[in-house]
Fold this protein.
Amino acid sequence: MPLSRNCADAMAFRVDVARPALEEAHAIVANLRLLSPAAAERWVAAFLARCASLRALPERGTIAAELAWVHKEIRQVILERYRILYVINGERVTVVHVRHGAQLPLSPDDW
C-alpha cells in the first residue's frame, strides 16, 4: 500500500502530509520492512487510517510538547510508538512530522 501526500478524500477537513512527514513515514516503513514486510504494510494501513480519521475530528489529538516554541497549535495522535504531529489551519489539516516516541521533541530549528 503506497504512502501519498493526500491521505483523504474531501470531507469536512482536508488532510495533507507535508514532505518532512512523508519522508519520515517512508523511513519508518523502510526500517519495518527490513524486520517484517507484513508489519510494514500494517503500519502503512494504520498510518493512513490515522490520517483519514483527522478529516472528521482533527481536534481529537492532544496538544504536542512542541507548542512551547512554535506559534501554532500543534497536535498529535499516537500510532504504536510514533507521534503523528499535525496542525489545523481552517479546514485543512497538515501532518508535519512523524516521530518515534523515544525521540526528543522537535526544536525550533526543526520548523
In short: The longest strand covers residues 92-100.
